[in-house]
Fold this protein.
Amino acid sequence: MDKPTDTPPSTRASGAEDLRLLRFFSTASLVAFLVVAVLLGYVFKTLSVDNLVNGYQSEHVNHARIIANETWDDHFDPLITITAPLPSDQLAASPHIAEIDQHIKKLLEGTKIFKIKVYDLKGRTIYSTDLRQIGQDKSANAGVIAALQGQSSSALVHHDQLSTFEGELTNQDMVESYIPRFDPATGQVTGVFEIYRDATGLVKEIRKRQIELVGAVIGLLALLYLVVFSIVKRAQDKLTAQGRERQKVQAALAEAEERWKFALEGSGDGVWDRNLTSGEVVFSSRYKEMYGFSDADLADRNEPWDARVHPDDLPQVLADRDAYFRGATSTYVSERRMQSKNGSWKWVQSRGMVVSRDAQGRPLRMIGTHSDISERHAREQELQLSSTVLQTVDEAVTVTDADNTIVSVNPAFTIITGYTQRDVIGKTPSLLASGTHDRAFYQDMWQQINTQGGWHGEIRNRRKSGQLYVEWLSIKRVCDTKGQVTHYVAVFSDISERKASEERMHHLAHYDVLTDLPNRVLFGDRLTQAIASAQRDNRHLALMFIDLDKFKPVNDELGHPAGDQLLRAVAKRLRQCVLRDSDTVARVGGDEFVVMLHDVESEQDAMTVATKIRAALEQPFELGEHTVSISSSVGVAMFPQHGANESALVKNADIAMYHAKDAGRNRVQFFHDGLSASE
């Protein structure tokens, strides 16, 4: 891998380059200083002119007020009134002009104002110290327009320069101002003064100071230039000396280069050595072996630097290399896919450094290595895929360490629980506990996790908002190669809606939709359990069948909505008559209800409740705009006297109810052996 070292630039070439650099600096500095001086002069002149105009405008406003106070009411106001109907070419013929002109010129004595003009509200010149201008129409003059709107304006006009207001060449330096005259009583504009003031002396003074300022700035900048030039010259001399020293260092570096190459070969990396000017490249034996080439396949040759780089990776490779060459990065490191001899692609990490540069700092030669990172890249892709799956799944995932401290959660965890990653990292999952599970529940859970490696089931937890929810939780234990627990992974999903739906379906299957009372199915189940309990404890229970009298006419006359409202009201009164939670009120048919009383001591106790029910249903019902009165027929059977099982007890209570209806309705009938279904 030996190759000749680069020839360092000559001292003469370096000296010529240094001279060109100083010349460039000198020229650029002088131009910059002159530009700065001119700009400062321009800024000074602009600010001075602005101050002059503003000061004169203030003085002109005061002059206008003095002249108005002295002349307006007695001269100009009558003049405006008299000349209002006259055409413009007759304004100068007004006999008042001569008197006003004499008065105005007397007021101007001792001032630098050399001309005054007065305009009426039409923009016509009704008076001017230059009598030739009386009658001129200035309604389109920008200054007159602004003054008629109540705004004062001024401008500096230089000798032989076109006035922006009048549109005429001036024969001297002057300031012209347009001042509105306001009526003291109404505050309305009644006319406009135009005042001309000689500014020749002040303009000359401004120009003189501008020239002095520019001269002083140029002198100071010239002094500064000499100081900076001296500093740059000394720095340039030092850089030249450093360049010579660098050449010596490069020579010493070339001597150690081969030893560095051998060390790299020993590390298992492939070494490349590229001449950046000619394109010649030298590859080490390990480099060729890495890509499946023989020594003859990749002999020393000119090869495009990126000939075997994967097209998708090439833009990033070029960006990494450019950043290193520009000095944006201190080292050159780039990962890419490279094509092997058999056409397959291999992930490699390329490292390199520039070992030689020309006098301008451009890289001439670069040496580096290729390391095979295919296995590492494959593992990183697997981890990236796992991380992507973890971040996108709908199930919440919680990872804790061996002490059950949370170390990671995914976005779904925040969506379900409301806790952010910052809220839970470093804490235990117990912050989700709802308090609805006892200690035994959690002990059983951890016993299964520790003995069987995992646990799954339903659990009720609490969100950050305090709301309870039901989740399906699966916990797995993670161990290292030695069998020691390193982590626990919990995956859960919110099944609150599914559980709520199941509960709604269960409710619909066991409760009457209209009255929300237990239906025939749930009543039958409760009756079976109640009889079994009564048999076990040797107790009695009472079963009442209740049929509403006169219900059909309500449906026929008032309609089914009224009938439904009546049934709900009946259900409410029945609940109020049966106060114990162990007793049951159910609807088993259209207008048929049943009441089951647990633990009844005697028939008299049952009769008391039945009579209470009959009396309650006998009271009128308010159904919107209608008042309805009905009654009820109640049949009562006692366990075990009137039936030792469910079917017998239900049958006999039903028989007693029908006998109550046959006996005239609105009554309570207890079953006895003399009653039969055929009667």
In short: The longest helix spans residues 11-83. Residues 1-13 have pLDDT under 50 and may be disordered. The first strand starts at residue 113 and ends at 119.
